[in-house]
């Protein structure tokens, strides 16, 4: 009887793994289709120029107009957004440090 339950558990686990795998494949394919449609809609030249500008931005080389935009003061919304992001990251780091600390630091009970 136990072996039948184990076999059923293994079958259910395999089905779940197959469903997860199928979902990942479907999501990847849908993403591919959307990117392909956007590429056709915007035209191939635009996407190439976008990639080049992204490379330029990431390499640290800025053009004159990009330098001017970088020197401008951030808006109130941008500052609030940056603060919110920083707070989230700091909270994450604190929680991660707390998880890594050994939990043996409690005071021993007196006998």
TrEMBL record:
Coiled coil: none annotated. Residues 41-111 are annotated as: Disordered. PROSITE patterns: IQ. GO terms for molecular function: calmodulin binding. SUPFAM superfamilies: P-loop containing nucleoside triphosphate hydrolases (SSF52540). Pfam families: IQ. Residues 93-103 have a biased composition (Basic residues). This is Uncharacterized protein. It comes from Ignelater luminosus.
């Amino acid at each position: 009887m136990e072996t039948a339950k184990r076999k059923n558990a293994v079958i259910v686990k395999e089905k779940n793994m197959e469903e997860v795998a199928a979902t990942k494949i479907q999501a990847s394919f849908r993403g591919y289709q959307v990117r392909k449609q956007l590429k056709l809609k915007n035209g191939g030249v635009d996407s190439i120029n976008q990639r080049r500008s992204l490379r330029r931005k990431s390499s640290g080389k800025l053009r004159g107009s990009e330098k001017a935009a970088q020197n401008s003061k951030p808006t109130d919304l941008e500052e609030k957004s940056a603060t919110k992001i920083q707070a989230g990251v700091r909270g994450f780091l604190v929680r991660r440090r707390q998880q890594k600390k050994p939990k043996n630091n409690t005071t021993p009970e007196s006998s």
